[in-house]
Amino acid sequence: MNIIWLGHGSFRIEIGDQVLLIDPWLNGNPMMEGQDKDAAIAGATHFLVTHGHGDHTADVVALSQKTGAPVSGMVELAQHLFALGAHQGHAFNKGGTITLGNVAVTLVPASHSSSMEIDGDKRYMGMETGFILRGDGKTLYFSGDTSIMADMDWIGDCYKPDIGILSAGGYYTMDMAGVAYAAKRYFDFKTLIPCHYRTFPALEQSAEGLIRALPDVDVIEPQVMQAITV
């Protein structure tokens, strides 16, 4: 499995026979300035979207049209993206599992908010979510934007993810201390990758505190467009 950070909360995950783009925000993302955006989406087989905010959805429809890859996510959000012209994947709901090639994708709760601007108004886009990805003999928990939440207890116990990609920047989501707490209390990660940080001054800029707090976990600070192989 190759995990490639596209800055902020955006990832390219090469798993099994799939190239999954999760919340791909390329245009306007300060961390993607000067990067090869065509390489970021090359060979994409499917788009997964966690919630409706613009820093997660702004490019999804255009990229789906460009690549021909379908989009899947929470039913209300996915149906809205389909109506805007995204290729149709799965409009499913929390607890549901879809099969993409030899990869299983399960929609799990997050604790955040979810909306998109439609005709100048903010509209509710169904509940915010995360994903459990299973493939290559590994289980990955992608938290999406979230605070610490009690649901992490059963997510950790039920799916037993060995890899975590968790929002960690603070202000809009958990901060590094919150991620450390969640990792210790709810999970037994072998590898942990923080995200949704460093993008803006309001967000945390370093994961050093997280690394110190979890000496028994391989905490990896991702670098944009550099593959992490697990």
In brief:
By secondary structure, the protein is α/β, with parallel strands linked by helices.
Characterise the protein shown here.
The chain is an alpha/beta fold and 230 residues long. The chain contains seven helices and 16 strands. The longest helix is centred in the C-terminal third of the chain and has 11 residues, at 176-186.
Which helices and strands appear, and what pairs or packs with what?
Elements: E1 2-5, E2 11-15, E3 18-22, H1 37-41, E4 46-49, H2 54-57, H3 60-67, E5 71-74, H4 75-83, E6 88-92, E7 97-100, E8 103-109, E9 115-118, E10 121-124, E11 129-135, E12 138-142, H5 151-159, E13 163-167, H6 176-186, E14 191-195, H7 208-213, E15 218-219, E16 227-229
Parallel strand pairs: 3-4, 4-5, 5-6, 12-13, 13-14, 14-15
Antiparallel strand pairs: 1-2, 1-16, 2-3, 7-8, 8-11, 9-10, 11-12
Q: Architecture in CATH?
A: 4-Layer Sandwich
Task: State the end-to-end CA separation.
Answer: 6 Å
Would you identify the regions where 5 or more consecutive residues have pLDDT less than 50?
A: none
Which class of secondary structure composition applies to the elements? alpha/beta
| SS field, number of helical segments | 7
Report the sheet with the most strands, covering strand number, pairing sense and barrel closure. 7 strands, mixed
Strand order of the largest sheet: 6-5-4-3-2-1-16
How many domains, in number, for the residues? 1
Give the strand content: 25-35%
Radius of gyration, rounded?
Answer: 16 Å
Instruction: Compute the average pLDDT.
Output: 97
